[in-house]
Amino acid sequence: MATPRCGVKDKVGPAADGRSKRYALQGSRWRTKNLTYKLSKYPTGLNKQEVDKEIAKAFSVWSGETDLTFTPKSGYENVHIEIRFEVGEHGDGDPFDGPGGTLAHAYFPVYGGDAHFDDSERWTIRSYRGTNLFQVAAHEFGHSLGLSHSDIKSALMAPFYRGYDPYFTLDQDDIDAIQALYGKKTNYGPRGQGTTSRPSPPAEEDPELCKDPKVDAMFNTKDGDTIVFKGKHYWKLTDNGVASGYPRRISSTWKELPSNIDAAFTYRNGKTYFFKGTQYWRYINSTMDGDYPKEISDGFTGIPDHIDAATVWTGNGKIYFYKGTKFWRFDPASKPPVRSNYPKLIKNWQGIPDHVNAAVTYKGYTYFFQDNAYYRFNDRTFSVDVAEPAFPRSTAYWWFGCKSANRGTLGKDNRPFASVSNMDVADDDTYYYGSLDNIDDIILDAGGTDELVTSSSNHGHADSGTSSLSTHSGNTWQPFLMNIAMTTIIARFIATT
User: Fold this and answer.
1) Fewer CB in 10 Å around end: N or C, the chain?
2) Which of 177, 153, 65, 17 minimizes the C-alpha distance to 428?
3) Residues involved in catalysis
4) Which residues form the Peptidase metallopeptidase domain (predicted)?
């Protein structure tokens, strides 16, 4: 079984003492923090403007954690990093091998920093199919900046290409690595803090949400906005709290949609589904998409009425519904869409309580809300995230910008602790996959259709400092649980390519 991976010959794997060496630095770096780049040859089959955006986005992954800047150039201007999409032999003595082998290679700063991509590959943008341009480019640019491979399997700089992640975020190991070369970011914008936690709240507060932060539903729109539903109103959230001009009436934007919605999510087809009682509605942005409402039992066979929350999980792109102490996984590409071994107990999601009110994905994590508290679920370790302060935390403070709310850990019944407790932080190479009952829930399956089809629907690299993403085989993962998980990841790569 072949897995797309970076074939650089740097040393990876456990150190002599059995512990992970974590991130690795190649030894060279740029002497300036203001770097330039240009795309000399574009990939075939993709819009140039879209490619420009994805390349800029890939560079921003690194400028977001350092004071590095990346300025695009064109024509015959000299630049620090030249980017080309090539086929076969392309002048550097390291020819590409066609589809399915080497994906790309990049040179460390001491060797010029250029990045080459195999134009024989099926490069895609925001799709589970093919090879994701943004994530491969971000990895290769890490090499262009001086990073070698990491032993942390969740890191961007790990050797293995892990497939499309619609909520991609850098691992802390990646951040530590790039900051070891270029220092920490000092010119933060309004977001202020890191990438894995909500930033400090703004000065203004929304009185309704601060008084009672329990919400009906949360979801992300097609354009990436995070929306909160409560009663008759909705709020749009920013990285700092609540956007100005809210709340607004739900009916003013989603006409014919009732108040007191139970749950909502936006699927990968860009359509948003709302649930209340026994019925559901489907919208494209703010326009109803067809004749709705319809019965949940008709459109989502196997899913109960009166659900508590719903979300599309980042681990596999499947839809999860939560009600009381149980959850269901819905896969529109399968028949039946809900397997016979469902429902399962919510306690299989390690650390998540029963009777959640809402769930939403944000930058690679899944957040669960219960009354006035929330839990950050690490979709890579499959457990509530280890952080300081620990979870659960106050939704009012961390999500809605209520500066008067408690910012520490909430205790029993979501009441504040007298002080924030210290928690043991697991080693970066420790993975928790839950019980064996969870194995089928963490499979990273890239197959299926981009349409949500329901029963009532009308539709459906190398030497001299060179790094590459290439094919590798024969990896043995232990323990047994890891073996199962990685086998499923490999299966995803085959399906993807």
Assistant:
1) N
2) 153
3) 140
4) 26-184
